[in-house]
Amino acid sequence: MAVQLIPSAADRRLLDESRGPRTMMWIMAIMLFLTVLAGALGLATRSAVVLLDRQLAGRLTVQIIEPVTAKRDAEAEATLTAVRRLPDVARARMVDRAELAALLRPWLGADGADPDLPMPALIDVDMRRASDMAVARVAGAVAAVAPAARIDRQESWMSPVANFMTMVTGLAGAMVALMAAATAAVVILAARAGLETHRDTIEVLHMLGSTDSQVSRLFQRRIALDTLFGGVLGTVLAGSTVVLMGAQLGALGSDLLSGLTLASEDWILLALMPLAFALLATLAARVAVTGALGRIL
């Protein structure tokens, strides 16, 4: 399906009723603006989910909840020593009380640093292997020295966040698909409207020997150029918006939100969207025009 992208002067006079910017181009600019934003959201949340899984996979938190301070400290030291001996454990460290106080400050204020405040001892554990058997071995070693200790897998309590972000990724993908379908529908409506507008001219072309395929290529070329130019404009505006939003998210200082980033291959995919939509619009125009010409002429 060969489509000449640079129209001749005769073709422009034949089908272009306006020399200024056409409405179709601005519609496509809006469509691509929204599509690229949705695509950027989906790609960024996918990257954040991958980063979250990588960071939390195999991370455990051991809580020593013994109320007696001296006994709690002794159990914490014994637990730390026992856990570090396990071959499945890559790293284990005691969480400093000052760190716990900082975590509690938003809820308790300055009382979070009160030395008389009963506070469990926490041990962060990084596993070499995140299998259930490896976690069970850690749990057995902890139970041997601190029977009342609790072990939490960080990925378990963050799984609702990961599930939500996965859902957002799916919704963004669905939005891109819907925008592509809407683009095809707009192209079909525009092509049929163009046929009705230039019906008399097309009849003359047929009498002069032009085929349906030749007439169809005139509409394909025009729609492809409008989609491509409008798509590039919309993509540039959407890309600028994404960069601005990324800078604002980075300024928040949130570890979770900082994972909403786009890799180089993600930017390449977004940059190819105008071309993909131009090809889609060309195909939709060909199908619409060829089918309509067979019915009305």
UniProtKB/TrEMBL annotation:
InterPro entries for the chain: ABC3_permease_C, FtsX
Mode of membrane association: Multi-pass membrane protein
Keywords assigned: Cell membrane, Membrane, Transmembrane, Transmembrane helix
Keyword Cell cycle included in the entry's annotation: no
Claim: Magnesium is one of the keywords in the record: no
Domain ABC3 transporter permease C-terminal: 174-286
Xref: Pfam families: FtsX
Transmembrane stretches, start-end: 24-44, 134-151, 171-191, 223-247, 267-289
Compartments where located: Cell membrane
Protein name: FtsX-like permease family protein
Lineage: Bacteria, Pseudomonadati, Pseudomonadota, Alphaproteobacteria, Sphingomonadales
